[in-house]
């Protein structure tokens, strides 16, 4: 029920209005002056105020102004009770916030119509106010959620801004969240990867795919995987996670650490360009594949393109937002303009290109995310590796293999795995493998099996050699190879001794070991990698010293 | 230890990728990888990004490939070598016969 507050110092007016309005079903409150009225408004819910102009203590003008101030959120109609002769004061009534007038003596029909009209407006205003509050609540909630998500995105797309020498990129999302993403990372061996992706649509819905895609990208680059493997894995993850109508057009490229060659997987983005410093297009690279997240893993196409580059070259990657930008005449920016802009200035920056695009749009609302990557084909400094500290303990390993074990196993890698458990040796595993592999295989092939390396030099000898080896290995009995390794923390050296049960060699018997011959690539490698290599007099034992500090050199 | 090969989208590059250990155990499969090479292939890339270990038998296999392919390809690249493997290739003067990256 609507509640009407009647404010008048004349009891007769109050009574009259009260009776008339109560008959029509309104709830009436009475006040004798402005101060009483304001006090009532403080504690009671009032929908309409009928206000006399001339009153003691606080008159209608001041009261109206204060009431309007109190109820700024919702429309609270104030109807002034006026006498016809007060016509001159109408203007002032409106100025202080009055909404209408009712003349004395009161006409019941007019009074009723006016109250009805204003209570309708009041109700509309109340409803709008409720909805505003709800809207504000949801708005705040969404804001808060966006803040959280934005935080997650910023952390997920971690080192976008590293490698500024090589990569100059610009992303300008059409809404708060970017449906485009630019990921950059370096592999342990130093090659630099960049992935530019464009998810279907834009805004948050488009951006969510960036989280799983970026995780896969960073993890696989961290392991130095090939671009085709990365594309394949991102595709698998997105195909599994995204709804059917969503996918990600993407270019994934890898620049070798020397800066000399590029491998690229191109799926669904506009043409990429290889340009020179002046911006002339040297090569146009068309998309080869469907976007990521569409094909099943078994039908996915992994084919890459490879090309040689030099430091004067730049690779230009972009999403369709650029060429599909329109101006006020609905013309597309298009590939031709894009190519012209690239050549408009030597070593143009991504921001300068985007400026051309936005100038072209000339205030037309941005429809899609605009993304551009200018990738300079410069050699990339290798990442610094953390050096594991060397163990202070003097480890010693030794194993002797009999014929059965020699036949059934290929023990070198397993031995390397064990010895590189010693703190600090992991970084040397390739060299340790090489030393052990050369020494062990020499002991086996020439010492124990008595094979002749010269076979390798003959036509097709390489295969022949390994076939003979297999046959000889099959027949092997009564043989033994002993491998002994000693890690010395004081000298930071690893000492290897490998000895075999073979006949060894002597000056006049030259058909056994290859170690004495000029043949062995293996031998010269050993001597380069190890600090010292020596053989015993009978030629069936080799000793090597490998200095761990040699890596820094 | 494993070996995989793939052709580039335009068919001009054959990539042979070796995972883990590159030694005589791969002698068969490595030879097979380039045996049936296409006429369109002008470049072979031996991608060692996931190769942790190699020894002189791998060097022999690479030289064999070079000998077999001869002038039928323009270049053989050995790419993405880890530092210690790169050093092995340099010591063996492979940079004279292969493009090492």
Automatic annotation (TrEMBL), chain A:
<dbReference type="InterPro" id="IPR003594">
    <property type="entry name" value="HATPase_dom"/>
</dbReference>
<keyword id="KW-0597">Phosphoprotein</keyword>
<dbReference type="InterPro" id="IPR036457">
    <property type="entry name" value="PPM-type-like_dom_sf"/>
</dbReference>
<feature type="domain" description="Response regulatory">
    <location>
        <begin position="3"/>
        <end position="119"/>
    </location>
</feature>
<dbReference type="InterPro" id="IPR001789">
    <property type="entry name" value="Sig_transdc_resp-reg_receiver"/>
</dbReference>
<dbReference type="InterPro" id="IPR036890">
    <property type="entry name" value="HATPase_C_sf"/>
</dbReference>
<keyword id="KW-0378">Hydrolase</keyword>
<feature type="modified residue" description="4-aspartylphosphate">
    <location>
        <position position="52"/>
    </location>
</feature>
<dbReference type="Pfam" id="PF07228">
    <property type="entry name" value="SpoIIE"/>
</dbReference>
<dbReference type="InterPro" id="IPR052016">
    <property type="entry name" value="Bact_Sigma-Reg"/>
</dbReference>
<dbReference type="Pfam" id="PF13581">
    <property type="entry name" value="HATPase_c_2"/>
</dbReference>
<dbReference type="InterPro" id="IPR011006">
    <property type="entry name" value="CheY-like_superfamily"/>
</dbReference>
<dbReference type="Pfam" id="PF00072">
    <property type="entry name" value="Response_reg"/>
</dbReference>
<dbReference type="InterPro" id="IPR001932">
    <property type="entry name" value="PPM-type_phosphatase-like_dom"/>
</dbReference>
<protein>
    <submittedName>
        <fullName>Fused response regulator/phosphatase</fullName>
    </submittedName>
</protein>
From TrEMBL, chain B:
<dbReference type="InterPro" id="IPR036513">
    <property type="entry name" value="STAS_dom_sf"/>
</dbReference>
<dbReference type="Pfam" id="PF01740">
    <property type="entry name" value="STAS"/>
</dbReference>
<dbReference type="InterPro" id="IPR002645">
    <property type="entry name" value="STAS_dom"/>
</dbReference>
<dbReference type="GO" id="GO:0043856">
    <property type="term" value="F:anti-sigma factor antagonist activity"/>
</dbReference>
<protein>
    <submittedName>
        <fullName>Anti-anti-sigma factor</fullName>
    </submittedName>
</protein>
<feature type="domain" description="STAS">
    <location>
        <begin position="3"/>
        <end position="101"/>
    </location>
</feature>
């Amino acid at each position: 029920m609507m509640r009407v507050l009647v404010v008048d110092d004349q009891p007769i007016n109050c009574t009259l209005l009260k009776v008339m309005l109560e008959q029509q079903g309104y709830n009436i409150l009475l006040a004798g002056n402005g101060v009483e009225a304001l006090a009532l408004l403080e504690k009671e819910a009032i929908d309409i105020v009928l206000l006399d102009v001339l009153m003691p203590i606080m008159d209608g003008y001041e009261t109206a102004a204060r009431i309007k101030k109190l109820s700024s959120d919702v429309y609270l109609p104030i109807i002034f009770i006026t006498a016809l002769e007060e016509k001159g004061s109408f203007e002032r009534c409106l100025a202080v916030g009055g909404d209408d007038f009712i003349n004395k003596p009161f006409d019941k029909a007019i009074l009723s119509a006016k109250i009805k009209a204003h209570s309708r407006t009041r109700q509309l205003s109340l409803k709008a106010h409720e909805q505003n509050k709800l809207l504000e609540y949801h708005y705040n909630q969404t804001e808060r959620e966006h803040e959280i998500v934005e935080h997650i995105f910023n952390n997920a797309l971690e080192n976008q801004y590293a490698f500024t020498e090589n990569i100059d990129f610009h992303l300008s999302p059409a809404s708060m969240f970017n449906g485009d993403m630019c990921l950059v990372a370096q592999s342990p061996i130093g090659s630099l990867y960049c992935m530019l992706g464009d998810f279907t649509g834009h805004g948050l819905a488009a951006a969510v795919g960036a989280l799983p895609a970026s995780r896969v990208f960073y993890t696989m680059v961290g392991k130095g995987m090939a671009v085709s493997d990365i594309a394949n894995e991102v595709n698998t993850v997105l195909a599994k996670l995204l709804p059917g109508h969503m996918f990600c057009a993407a270019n994934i490229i890898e620049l070798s650490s020397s800066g000399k060659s590029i491998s690229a997987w191109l799926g669904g983005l506009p043409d990429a360009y290889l340009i020179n410093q002046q911006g002339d297009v040297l090569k146009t690279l068309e998309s080869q594949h469907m976007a990521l997240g569409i094909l099943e893993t078994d039908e996915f196409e992994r084919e890459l393109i490879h090309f040689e580059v030099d430091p004067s070259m730049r690779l230009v990657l972009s999403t369709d937002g650029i060429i599909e930008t329109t101006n006020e005449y609905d013309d597309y920016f298009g590939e031709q303009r894009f190519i012209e802009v690239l050549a408009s200035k030597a070593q143009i920056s991504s921001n300068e290109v985007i400026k051309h695009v936005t100038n072209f749009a000339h205030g037309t609302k941005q429809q899609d995310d605009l993304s551009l990557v200018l990738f300079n084909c410069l050699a990339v400094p290798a990442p610094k590796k953390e050096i594991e500290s060397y163990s202070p303990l003097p480890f010693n390993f030794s194993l002797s293999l009999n014929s059965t074990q020699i036949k059934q196993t290929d023990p070198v890698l397993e031995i390397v795995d064990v010895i590189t458990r010693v703190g600090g040796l992991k970084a040397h595993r390739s060299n340790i493998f090489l030393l052990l592999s050369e020494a062990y295989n020499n002991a086996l092939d020439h010492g124990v099996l008595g094979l002749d390396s010269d076979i390798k030099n003959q036509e097709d000898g390489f295969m022949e050699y390994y076939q003979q080896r297999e046959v000889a290995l099959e027949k092997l009995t009564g043989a033994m190879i002993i491998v002994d390794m000693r890690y010395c923390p004081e000298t930071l050296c690893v000492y290897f001794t490998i000895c075999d049960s073979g006949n060894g060699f002597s000056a006049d018997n030259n058909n056994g070991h290859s170690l004495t011959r000029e043949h062995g690539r293996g031998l010269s490698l050993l001597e380069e990698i190890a600090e010292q290599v020596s053989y015993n007099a009978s030629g069936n034992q080799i000793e090597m010293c490998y200095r761990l500090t040699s890596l820094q050199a | 230890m494993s070996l995989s090969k793939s052709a580039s989208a335009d068919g001009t590059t054959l990539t042979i990728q070796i995972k883990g250990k590159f030694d005589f155990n791969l002698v068969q499969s490595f030879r097979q990888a380039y045996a049936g090479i296409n006429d369109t292939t002008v470049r072979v890339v031996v991608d060692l990004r996931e190769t942790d270990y190699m020894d002189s038998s791998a060097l022999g296999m690479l030289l064999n490939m070079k000998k077999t392919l001869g002038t039928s390809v323009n270049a053989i690249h050995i790419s993405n070598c880890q530092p210690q493997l790169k050093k092995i290739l340099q010591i063996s003067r492979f940079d004279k016969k292969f493009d090492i990256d």
